[in-house]
Amino acid sequence: MVISHCLQRQSPRKRHKRQRLFRQKNVLRFVIDECTDVAQHLPARTTTLPGGAANMQRVSKGVALALKSRATLYLADPLFNTSGDVAKWEAAATAAFDVIRQASAFGYALDDDYKNLFGATNNQSAEVILCRPEGKDHAL
Q1: In whole angstroms, what is the distance from residue 49 CA to residue 83 CA?
Q2: Rounded to whole angstroms, how far apart are CA atoms 61 and 59?
Q3: How far apart are the first and last CA of the chain?
Q4: Closest CA to 88 of 101, 99, 98, 74
Q5: Can you state the angle between helices 24-39 and 61-76, rounded to 10 degrees?
Q6: pLDDT by residue (tens digit) across 57-104?
Q7: Please, are residues 68 and 32 in contact by the beta-carbon 8 Å criterion?
Q8: What pTM did the predictor assign?
């Protein structure tokens, strides 16, 4: 279920009637709309925020557009696009191209050394769009 508004306190019976279960297509559309909206308000690079490289795990405009790209690709997939609507594939291609076209502005690039993706500083690779630090020292 996607909740996109404030819920009012109600009796359980009334609440049950008001809940609307969204189909997967609607969830994907919601993700696409939210990513489109939030991308306008996010910085292009999180490393420009106070703290520099320590902000690699924060969401940036590039992350939002990459998630939008993936969601549009899922929506174009035959699983959800049973009619074979070409416009959905075109929307997916456009969303992917938006990320690719702005890759240098977001700080994304192919790493010169493949080993860098597996070391202690792999979260600092230009190939990483979003990282999730783990452990007590927040290493990947």
Answers
A1: 45
A2: 7
A3: 31
A4: 74
A5: 150
A6: 788 999 999 999 999 999 999 988 889 999 999 999 999 999 999 999
A7: yes
A8: 0.76
